[in-house]
Amino acid sequence: MQHDYKGFPGQHIARSVAREYPRQAEVIAHRGQDLLLPRFDATDGRVLTPNRAAPAIRLPNDELVLRDLNTPWDVAKHAEARRPVSLGIVATDVQEAFVRELPPWCRHVLDMPIKFPGTGVRVPNALASFVPALQQILDIEAQLNPAYDAYYAYLSIHQARIEPGERMRENPYHVDGFQGPRWPHKHPVNHSYLLADALPTVFYPRSFPLDHLDLGLDDIYAEFARLIEGNPQTPTWRAADFDLVLMDAYCVHRGDVATVPVTRTWLRVSWETRIFDRLGNAHNPLFRYDWPMVARDTDTRIRPRPVA
Ligand SMILES: [Fe+2]
User: What is the reported pLDDT for 299?
Assistant: First the structure.
């Protein structure tokens, strides 16, 4: 299986899946690429709400990700080395549901809103195998985040076979939720829960000073690469398989390269006060909304240039 730079299933897969499942998937053209989008059933979903009787979570109080929750995004914080917070291995029943094989048309779901401010979490039943994990995530989020109701939540899923030498997503060293010049007034920093059954994401808990860069012009990802690859002492951190982790938009990371063939299921739930309106994001028909969608690569860098 091929994966492109943005993490979508390869072009030939998009077309063949859409041909096989014409009612459940569609292909949209974007800058010469075919993007596969799932089409969920508007009448077949369920609503999740936080279980207020869930056991209280115990967390270390010196984690930067927790300190900065609900604070406005600030580029200066990239200078502080940080790693995600480990929330523990999920229970066996959560694991067993999580690894169930999905229909081919919904093995890749990108940034689909599952919660709007003030609503419950609405999940299409085609994704029912993720409900136990999602319930645990929103139980934790409701305890951690006093502004829980004000947030959107976006669900991403990817389930694929990965061959030796491949990454699940061919992407660079990056962060999720960078607020570039499109956002002159900074929103609360993105925080995201990650869960994977294999090949955990690699994090780089080191300082990434960016103050000297022009966020509208310079290639931030190239700067991450320069600092990481130019410094062999850069530490790495990986969660264990099935360890639920919480990262924020300052945690630089990259998908790992498989050394043996592996089938991987990966989930991310991003909490944001912004709308995610990029072309290729999955639509959730359990909500009524109609955002104008924008091209995928206009949000962080207007005209990336190599960093001098
Ligand atoms: Fe990422």
Answer: 41
**Ligand 1 centroid vs 209 CA: distance in angstroms?**
19
Tracing tokens 């300190």 back to the chain, one arrives at 67
Task: Give distance in angstroms: CA of 198 to centre of ligand 1.
Answer: 16
For ligand 1, the distance from its centroid to the CA atom of residue 284, given in whole angstroms, is 21
Percentage of residues in the chain having pLDDT higher than 90: 73
Q: Is a pLDDT exceeding 80 seen at residue 221? A: yes
Residue 167 CA to ligand 1 centre (angstroms):
12
Per residue in 30-85, pLDDT (tens digit) is 877 788 899 999 999 999 999 988 888 888 778 999 999 999 999 999 999 999 99
The structural domains of the chain, with segments of one domain joined by +, span: 11-57+71-272
Query: 174 CA distance to ligand 1 centroid (A)?
Result: 6
pLDDT for 301 beyond 80: no
**Domain 11-57+71-272 classified CATH 2.50.20?**
no
pTM of this structure: 0.92
